[in-house]
């Protein structure tokens, strides 16, 4: 039988690990589980595991582990020769192109992202104008990773959920 699995963590690549830790702790309130640490290609258990994942030649990287308010882990990676593309928003390509956080103050969090070196990609929009108070916006962290902000939970946004009219 298949059952819904819990989300454990996400890995995010950045060009400056220390700046990323500061951004995510100050901006989103995530907390550090493991501070920035260097991992090297060697015969240690983690070195061998990374050879399996990245293949030969990765040499070294830095990593920090954070956690969200709902206990989802966030691995921040700074790889040797990390590059920030001019436009990281290639939504048409296979892979994760954004992650989403929830905050009832969508506008305030978007402003905080911008104030801490990120970018707001669009105006705040309503999902159901005049019907339900659900709002969203796409932003970026300082490294070009896309952050979406929802005012309400994923379940409420996409289900009948709350704020139904009496005629429904």
Automatic annotation (TrEMBL):
Entry keywords, A to Z: Lyase, Metal-binding
InterPro entries referenced in this protein's UniProt entry, alphabetically: Glyas_Bleomycin-R_OHBP_Dase, Glyas_Fos-R_dOase_dom, Lactoylglutathione_lyase, MMCE/EMCE_epimerase, VOC_core
The VOC domain, residue ranges: 6-152
NCBIfam families: glyox_marine (TIGR03645)
Stored CDD domains: VOC_ShValD_like
Species name: Aporhodopirellula rubra
Protein name per its UniProtKB record: Lactoylglutathione lyase family protein
PROSITE patterns: VOC
GO molecular function, one term: methylmalonyl-CoA epimerase activity
One family name in Pfam for this protein: Glyoxalase
Biological process according to GO: L-methylmalonyl-CoA metabolic process
